[in-house]
UniProtKB/TrEMBL annotation:
Transmembrane segments: none annotated. Gene3D superfamilies: Regulatory factor, effector binding domain. This is AraC family transcriptional regulator. SUPFAM superfamilies: Probable bacterial effector-binding domain. Coiled coil: none annotated. It comes from the Bacteria.
Amino acid sequence: MPQCTPILIDHAPATHTAVVRATQLPVSELGPFMDAAYRALGEAIASGRIHPIGAAVSRYDSEFGATVDLEAGFPIAEPLTESVVINDIEIVPSALPAGETATTTLTGGYDQLAPAWEQLMAGVNEAGRTPAMPFWEIYQTKPMPGIDPDTMQTQLVILLQPQGE
């Protein structure tokens, strides 16, 4: 059982993001995609081409199956006015949507994400709520060599359909 905070139902504001997008990405390629995306984003930050206002995020626009549609990036104060290309990787404008959300924070390694998502989804269902798309992760602990995975924190966020719909 993953170590997660109690589920919180709250309202999230819309947030501009600068992201690297993948469509129909084989789930087996998720790690290499994230590494390349965040390396390019890091270079864009270092060169002053994007200015994050918070921790790294991944937005999922499809359910996990053999493939997934996702974005990896950072929240930014103002939308990008044009894409940024770093080493043939395109960084584009996007956003996290406003709406009612269910959230929990996992303390533990990325290998605990799948059971943490299952736990959050079960809590949403038990509360009689219906999840919507997208859902996202906020990486509150920056993964770095030598970090103890048991201390890492990742916030999991599910957008909820409005009640009565």
